[in-house]
Design goal:
2 domains; globular; Arc Repressor Mutant, subunit A; homodimer; mainly alpha; 0% strand; Tetracycline Repressor, domain 2; 194 residues
Chain lengths: 194, 194
């Protein structure tokens, strides 16, 4: 192992996103990311399996936050209340990084491979959320359904949050947490009409 | 172009699924699929881009059924009622092919690449469903949310339907349509507690 590099992961993540925005994901190499970060390719591969993965570094932290919030939900557990608490906790973590999230999403939206990786990450989050609900005694079908629906709500809210300023309404700027609240209200309304 | 082969797509699809079940997806080649179907590799590639795609041949037909049902929903359109009608219509098409669906799902569950392709197909179905709702005048956020939630309901119902006989309860056998009804009822229940 090489010598310890302070904040190597963060530096690689920032360098990668900069380059993906400047030149596009396809036209950026791992060597260039490492160079921009002032690190070696070897260090890159010690932290990330490939240049896609560097964009999804936050995914396991997000999973821990979601699972932790479900595990800490008060008894008795109402499945969608626990899911809502988990989404709120995730919003708290993501809110500070809106500009990063917006740029990252633009890179993902421009590349099919990255969209695929994102779908896989979201499916993993849903599985982890369902498992956390089962651990709290929620039955199998309800756990799966609540988790899938929760991730659907999160996807919609997240997209509205990152896209809001494209429409030039900075005066009506909303937090991710507010978009999640609005999507949960939307869910109650559409589900009541099912 | 070669001469016309009666039901070439169906023959290739059946041959592929047989071989994937017998030997596994990875260990089956396009040449073997064509041979089993009594056709040439050239004919295979006239119908399918690769050996993954042959498992998802039904996806565009399913999309047409979903979109058609939303387009034909009575005025005024309650979004989740239109989605429920679309899922019912899809169930009608899939119900006859339960054994095929069960074997196909086992092949997909054993292979990460196929699971990825399945997630992409489901995301496309959700996008098409949301577009169909927008065409009917449903606002953007409600259309996306109803479509995502509808596909979540469909995923859960479909899985319960294909897996039901693994638990040896043939006496309590349910149609896909019944599982969809149960998942929609589950949705109303969990959403009310959100």
């Amino acid at each position: 192992m090489g010598r310890w590099q302070p904040d190597a992961r963060g530096r690689l993540e920032r360098a990668a996103l900069e380059l993906y925005v400047e030149r596009g994901f396809e036209r950026t190499s791992v060597a260039e990311i490492a160079e921009r970060a002032g690190l070696t390719e070897r260090t890159f591969f010690r932290h990330y399996a490939d240049k896609r993965e560097v964009l999804f570094a936050g995914s396991s932290a997000l999973q821990e936050v979601l699972v932790g919030a479900v595990a800490g939900a008060p008894e008795p557990v109402a499945p969608m209340e626990a899911v809502a608490a988990a989404l709120e906790a995730a919003a708290g973590v993501l809110q500070e990084r809106q500009e990063h999230a917006r740029r990252r999403q633009a890179v993902i939206d421009a590349n099919t491979e990255l969209q695929e990786r994102e779908l896989i990450k979201l499916a993993s989050l849903s599985t982890a959320l369902a498992d956390a609900l089962r651990q709290r005694g929620v039955d199998d079908a309800t756990a799966s359904l609540s988790a899938e629906v929760g991730i659907a709500v999160f996807k919609i809210a997240f997209r509205r949050w990152v896209e809001q300023d494209q429409h030039g309404r900075r005066d009506r700027h909303m937090d991710l947490s507010q978009f999640i609240g609005a999507s949960l209200a939307g869910l109650r309304a559409v589900a009541a009409g099912a």
